[in-house]
Amino acid sequence: MAGGEHWRWAEMRGTVPGADFKTAAVRTAGIDVGSVGSKAAVMLDGRMAAWAIMRTGASSPDSAERVLARALEGTGLAVGDLHYVVGTGYGRVNVPMAKKTVTEISCHARGANHIWGKSVRTILDVGGQDIKAIRADETGNVAAFLMNDKCAAGTGRGMEVIADLLGVPVAELGETSLRVDEDPPPVNCTCVVFARSEAVALLRKGWSKEKVLAAYCAAMAIRMHALLQRVGVEREFAVTGGQSRNVGVVTRIERALGFSRLPVPEFAATGLDPMVAGAIGAALYAKAFHEKAARG
Amino acid sequence: MLAHYGYRDGSGEYFVAVDAAACTSCGRCAADCPSRALEMTAILDGLDEKSVAAVREASRNTLKEACAGCDHAGRAPCETACAPKAIRVTWKQG
């Protein structure tokens, strides 16, 4: 494991060019404290303006505060300038500056609706420690969902374990797994602890890293495809969460479904990043709650 | 909204599905569950909150055990307690 820290992924922040933080009528934020990553979205009148992604620390209140402060850097806004903040995240997170907490399921559905438009019907959110299959209507409300956190395999955490084991940076896992002529049989066990020992055994048998990764990603894709089928898959289909970046898993799910996901937007300039979908949804709920309260 | 809780593992499939729109918030399913696997929880209904039945977080990954002692043909206590038939248990091995 020369070099180490292959699990580490890049934290980031951005401001949408031209965002006018002074004149907006409604300034809201959504904070999504996940098990692995914390995300914040700052929106002006329901449009993305600034965002940040950081690694979640030991305490969810601290992580929430840090990621919001990071998103607000350079915008001229302080937390007190926001009209409404909504928190969401893994389990029962504590986001102290949030007036309300909304489930991740609702936030991802609403966020996906904002990123891709009202034609999104099925959302697969692969987070740090759980997987959610969501069906949404054209307004971004949830029609059905299934959440699975029984096992971390295939989630961000599971991928970090495999990245470290194979010495492949986590951002390159997916591409690496696709460098095989044909997929080997998937690993049997979908539990991350056993999957790790299975991967070790395959390496000892002389399998290449590419082949081991292909077998691992294929197993994860089968598992996620089964979750999707339980809630029912309708097009259009989108993938959110950290693993939306993992083309190794996503490509194999697309093969199983027989169609492609909606393309990942060019988010560097717009902030419409599938990994930030939950925070975007939370910021949109914040706007709706603020407006409802203002109406009285 | 149809909420599915549970999982499939090597031994079978274990799910509880709650139709949140049909749920009348009465709480009888939770009261009648011998494993105390259910609770009433607030979900968003538009922008308002509605209290609906849900599987407790602590039970979501142990439905195989939690529901093992009940009927698996639609007459589990939570199912018979629910007048609008908003709750459905799937417990299948193999």
Overview of this protein structure:
The complex is a heterodimer of chains A (296) and B (94). Chain A is an alpha/beta fold and 296 residues long. Chain A has two domains: 12-118 and 272-295, ATPase, nucleotide binding domain (Nucleotidyltransferase, domain 5); 131-135 and 140-257, 2-Layer Sandwich (Nucleotidyltransferase, domain 5). Helices cover 38% and strands 20% of the residues of chain A. Chain A has a six-stranded mixed sheet. In chain A, strands 9-8-7-10 form a four-stranded mixed sheet, with helices on both faces. In chain A, helix 2 (104-116) crosses helix 9 and helix 6 (209-231) packs across helix 7. The longest helix of chain A is centred in the last third of the chain and has 23 residues, at 209-231. In chain A, 52% of the residues are buried. The mean pLDDT of chain A is 91. Helices cover 15% and strands 41% of the residues of chain B. In chain B, the strands form two sheets. In chain B, strands 1-2-5 form a three-stranded antiparallel sheet, with no helix packed on it. A two-stranded antiparallel ribbon of chain B has the order 3-4. The chains are: A alpha/beta (296), B mainly beta (94). At the A-B interface, strand 9, helix 6 and helix 9 of A face strand 1 of B.
What share of residues of chain A is helical?
25-40%
Order of helices and strands of chain A: EEEEHEEHEEEHHHHEHHH
- In oligomeric terms, what are we looking at? heterodimer
Q: Biggest sheet of chain A: strands side by side, in what order?
A: 1-4-3-2-5-6
Low-confidence stretches of chain A: none
Low-confidence runs of chain B (pLDDT<50, min 5 residues)? Answer: none
Largest sheet of chain A: 6 strands, mixed
SS content category of chain B: mainly beta
What percentage of amino acids of chain B are in beta strands?
35-45%
SS summary, helix count of chain A: 9
CATH class of chain B: Alpha Beta
> Biggest sheet of chain B, open or closed, and with what strands and sense?
3 strands, antiparallel
Which two protein chains have the largest interface (Cβ within 8 Å of the partner's Cβ), and how many residues from each? A-B, 22 and 16 residues
**Structural Rg of chain A:** 19 Å
Gyration radius of chain B, to the nearest Å?
13 Å
**What is the element string of chain B, with H for helices and E for strands?**
EEHEEHHE
Individual helix count of chain B: 3
